[in-house]
Design brief:
By secondary structure, this protein is an alpha+beta fold. About 20% of the residues lie in helices and about 35% in strands. The protein has helices at about 5-20, 40-55, 130-145, 155, 175-180; strands at about 35, 60-70, 70-80, 85-95, 95-105, 165, 185-195, 200-210, 210-225, 225-235. Strand 7 and strand 8 form a beta hairpin. Helix 1 (about 5-20) crosses helix 2 (about 40-55). It starts with a helix and ends in a 14-residue tail after the last strand. The model has no long low-confidence stretch (mean pLDDT about 95).
Length: about 250
């Protein structure tokens, strides 16, 4: 039985922990485009990264992983020298991964609702409504987050049954409403990508948090036409002078 792209990426990420070199073959090293600004371009950069990480006795937990056409996106938990939460996105071409983006944040929490950054459902459902759910989340991001309009929340979010995993917010949505009203606190500016499988939808945005250039990866779960659950990572983007490749974060 041929392994799915999702399974091959999970094996690749797990090989950071196990040291097994086999799964790296999923990557087309000659064409690999790396969008993590802190990682060198190409196969040498990937090999060096894996070697550096292996020296920290790493632990890798792939919490949830999904496929959307040529893309695989995964929600991960890493324990290297410190515990981090990440989202990994890979693009496939001709059966191999040729492009990679990620967003990593130090693990924080639990939040005020007692939830961690990774707990909750892990398997996608409602596959037949993937495109409908993608459209809903895109509209929420554009009309509420980028527009900075807290009054739009009720049109897209099930406010009576919402489950929040972000460490800085809670199920009550009070802090989110306040943040959207304060451009100095959080400022979504550009939506770069929307990936979806069933009831799970990942958005990749660029903006500012506390005045710092930042990337926002938000994972939403949709149920009965409303957003009912949310996870995220927020990462400050290093100054361009510190980048180790010229591909850009997005």
């Amino acid at each position: 039985m041929v392994a799915s792209n999702k399974d091959r990426i999970c094996a690749l990420l797990k090989s950071i922990e196990t040291g097994d070199p086999g799964p790296i073959s999923v990557v087309n090293e000659a064409r690999y485009i790396q969008h993590n600004p802190q990682t060198h371009e190409g196969s040498e950069g990937l090999a060096a990264l894996f070697k550096r990480l292996s020296d920290t006795s790493p632990r890798v937990n792939i919490v949830r992983a999904f496929e959307d056409g040529d893309f695989v996106f995964a929600h991960t938990e890493y324990d290297f020298s410190r515990r981090n939460i990440g989202f990994e996105v890979f693009r496939f071409e001709d059966g191999q991964a040729v492009e990679h983006w990620d967003n990593i944040q130090k693990r924080l929490g639990p939040n005020d609702s007692g939830r961690s950054m990774v707990d909750g459902p892990t398997e996608s459902r409602d596959i037949e409504n993937t495109e409908k759910n993608r459209t809903l989340v895109r509209s929420f991001v554009e009309n509420a987050l980028i527009a900075g309009d807290p009054d739009q929340i009720g049109a897209f979010v099930n406010t009576t049954a919402f489950v929040e995993h972000s460490p800085g917010f809670s199920d009550e949505l009070t802090a989110l409403r306040a943040a959207l009203s304060d451009i100095e606190a959080i400022n979504y500016q550009h939506l770069h990508r929307v990936l979806a499988e069933g009831d799970f939808v990942l958005t990749v945005c660029e903006g500012e948090r506390a005045g710092k250039h930042s990337s926002f990866y938000d994972l939403f779960r949709v149920s009965d036409g409303k957003i009912t659950e949310h996870w995220d990572t927020v990462e400050t983007i290093a100054p361009r002078s510190e980048w180790k490749n010229d591909n850009g974060k997005f």
